[in-house]
Amino acid sequence: MTVATVSPTVLARPSGGYAMLAVDQREALRAMFAAHQSQPVTDEQITAFKVAAARALSPYASAILVDKQFGWDAVIAQEAVAAECALIAAADRFTASATEFVADVAIDDDVDPAAVRAQGAKALKLLVLWRPDEDPAPRIALVTDFVRRCRENGLVSIIEPVSRAPRQGGAFDHDAGILAAARELGSLGADLYKAEVPTAGQGTPAEIVAGCSRLSESIAGPWVVLSSGVPAELFPDAVRLACQAGASGFLAGRAIWASVVGSPTMADDLRTISVDRLRRLCDVVDDAVSR
Q1: At CA 264, angle to CA 261 and CA 267, rounded to 5?
Q2: Which InterPro entries is this protein grouped with (predicted)?
Q3: How many of the other CB atoms lie within 10 Å of CB of 48?
Q4: Is the confidence at residue 218, as pLDDT, over 70?
Q5: What is the pTM of this model?
Q6: Are strands 192-195 and 104-107 parallel, antiparallel or unpaired?
């Protein structure tokens, strides 16, 4: 059976820009909660946050990314996502190490593309670790397999290559890794590419634009930025500059909701502080893509 190809625009705003929310963080989110409490952070606590964030923020996002491990089933069962917000399922399985929450990534076979599509998913997302001291062949094979699975099931494919230090340590140029990953993986057929912001959004505007322009030259299709590593107060400008250089929006979580994690008024803060941040970012995207 041939499944119709789905355009990534199903994840976009009416403006054509992407203003997508990520709540697929896993052990990193547990660590964020642990910084604010003495008792162990339970799986149920993580799930409850994801449901609350989806309920508060999805009415303002063009799409929302949710993980199977802690969020997907609860978000679906509790109908926490606004009808106008597209669903993205994280299709990556993480393996931790002594120093990294995510040391290795594989496609999660517990995420059945046909099943999540039946539940309303429009896309799948795969994190890919790019390390300068590792053979590129397994990364290329991983992305190629992922794109094939998405196409066979009528789902948009989103890849998220992130630049990581060498496995054995040593000198490391993070920005060089961002660009090298785009050159290696940006033309393998993924419908949407999710990239780190060059300089983590802390360079000059000219430096950020130059870095994003190089990404645009290397990625064969639309791409968006993520917010991990970028100070929340700098992320709106980073999105604006990235769009100026060819990006089409963002798929981000931390810049929107990280500051309210562990707050005694977290539910209210999601509806006020986080909603305000997301709405501002939506305005930035709409303005940038209309120019």
Answers
A1: 65
A2: Aldolase_TIM (IPR013785), DeoC/FbaB/LacD_aldolase (IPR002915), LacD_aldolase (IPR050552)
A3: 16
A4: yes
A5: 0.96
A6: unpaired
**Mean pLDDT over each residue of the chain, to the nearest integer:** 96
Tell me how far apart the alpha carbons of residues 256 and 219 are, in angstroms, rounded to a whole number: 26
CB 107 within 8 A of CB 149: yes
Which domains are seen in the chain, by residue range?
8-290 (3.20.20.70)
Give the DSSP per-residue string, 154-219.
T-EEEEEEEE---TT-----HHHHHHHHHHHHTTS--SEEEEPPGGGG-S-HHHHHHHHHHHHHH-
Residue whose C-alpha is closest to residue 194's, from 143, 233, 150: 143
- CA distance linking residue 61 with residue 192, whole number of Å: 17
Within 10 angstroms of residue 89's Cβ, the number of other Cβ atoms is 28
Tell me the average pLDDT across 61-78: 98
Taking the C-alpha atoms of residue 52 and residue 171, their distance in angstroms, rounded to an integer, is 41
Amino acid at 120: G
pLDDT of the residue at 178: 98
Percent of residues, the chain, with pLDDT higher than 70? 99
Distance CA 286, CA 17 (A): 6
Of 142, 151, 100, the closest CA to residue 123 belongs to 151
pLDDT at 168: 85
d(CA 273, CA 210): 31
How far is residue 47's CA from residue 70's CA, in Å, rounded to a whole number?
5
Q: Are 172 and 132 in contact (CB under 8 A)?
A: yes
| Residue 55 three-state SS | helix
Which residue intervals of the chain are DSSP H helices?
Answer: 27-34, 43-57, 72-77, 113-118, 136-152, 174-185, 205-218, 235-244, 254-257, 266-269, 275-290
Active site residues: 194
3 falls in which pLDDT band (50, 70, 90)? Answer: low
Altogether, the residues listed in the chain come to a count of 291
